[in-house]
């Protein structure tokens, strides 16, 4: 188990460095991340490289027995590069991403890629074999802040080449997109436009889906390009890159991206900007499990909140004990490395409001002392279980193709959420809500990419928002159920093929037989609540309300809302199929209603669960020498977990005899 900090010695003076290292080591930190924004420092003019500053810093950290993760400095570039090669700049929704900020690179630009190859090669050659360097972070938060989509002319040219490689002939493209609709028949590749902002009616959904796939492939290839260079010149070091919430904010297939890297990292900020309160704890656990699940391995938090954060505004101040709790929650959910952002708060630049472990001065803060204490408390147990597999019999499955699909065609306004202009995260929120119902019942659950998950490891699979299907995956799910598994299938399942064409069958399409139900009518109700009855319990749902027509399935719940003509019609069904069952959920349930659904489903699958109230989270971990039952009280008040009284923000670890 490793603890460290994100450190920026280039932002401080030489008289600070030795003292900073001492303060970090006294806290219990043994590792730093360096250099991820240092391109202008190492290549101040084109072709003039100078790595002397970082060599000096690596020598200093090695002297003090601290390890270093180096960041390739490609998340922003020097002004000279854009001045000489204007095509390296992105355009997003008609706005040029100019010099002065970050993540402005056009990943399709040959000039940008050539410059990246040079700087990464020189950096890896100069620093990659230093004994202090134990690993690399490729780029930084790649695709964040809307940089996953580029509407520049350079991007358009690359998109056309990508399409030509995929479809071979323009006729194949027209046929696969269904361009006969509205008569948009292309005769030449150069007639294809960028599917960007529009006045009213949008672009073809098939075209948009391919535009997203093109950007994903381009960025995945960009990460591979860098990782190949680093592996060549800095062998035997582990490679990663750091992701960010929300997990499906970008269009990038992160599960594919990480096939070129050794482990997953992400940046954990439970509160940001002017939030009035932190994200709910089940949402944070869902994010941890998403990142753990990309490689189904222990992960790193490369930026763990240590103060409170924002660029322009600030809001919620974490209560005493809360930053320590978030650190421990990350470890419980599968992190084996915690790197705090940041060691000391910047005095200048765009992140003056991103408070770190220390404030703008060097006096020890309450946060420093709290995290120092938390590290010493959890380290003995974390050394035993952190690197071990996170056990679970339930998995929630996500799919990047459907995440992209619901960005541009959410169907219901309830599945649209844009907290900032570049973000459409309705899919993210819905997926986290389906996960949260399991988390609040204190059931260990995985959150996995459907394309890479091994279904045979689980008793229950939960599959929301699987509208765009892959027929090979449908067959695997059918086999899973036939052999005794329980599949919880969400609304609008089996709606489209991978070309984004509607299937010529009733929802749930290829799932109809195993689900024992068909759907010919549905209503998009936005965020309005619709009542239903689950046995004797009342529930509410929203977003989409399907009117289910069971063929062989039994009804589990019916609409009970007097305002709806479909009162009395089924909303949830269960069908026996082979040795297993398919539970079909025809609406987006409220969190409490999800609890009711999962209680019955888990009982049917023989999986134990316990509800300790809305603020208590319990997890199970298996260590090398012992097993652990871990209770977290996410409330600022005392809470009971059975007969155990938990203090505010307490994390209590109970050891168990290993089975």
From TrEMBL:
Please name the catalytic residues of this protein.
Answer: 141 (proton donor), 303 (nucleophile)
Name the reaction it catalyses. Answer: Hydrolysis of terminal non-reducing beta-D-galactose residues in beta-D-galactosides
EC numbers for this chain: 3.2.1.23
The residue ranges crossing the membrane are none
Which branch of life, at top level?
Answer: Bacteria
Q: In its UniProt record, which GO terms are filed under biological process?
A: carbohydrate metabolic process
Q: What does the entry list as the binding residues for Zn(2+)?
A: 106
Q: Which UniProt keywords apply?
A: Glycosidase, Hydrolase, Metal-binding, Zinc
MF (Gene Ontology): beta-galactosidase activity; metal ion binding
Q: Which residues form the Beta-galactosidase trimerisation domain?
A: 392-607
Q: Which InterPro entries match?
A: Beta_galactosidase_Trimer, Class_I_gatase-like, GH, Glyco_hydro_42, Glyco_hydro_42_N
Zinc among keywords: yes
One Pfam family this sequence matches: Glyco_hydro_42M
Q: Name one GO cellular component term.
A: beta-galactosidase complex
Q: Which residues form the Glycoside hydrolase family 42 N-terminal domain?
A: 6-378
Q: Where does substrate bind?
A: 102, 140
Q: What is this protein called?
A: Beta-galactosidase
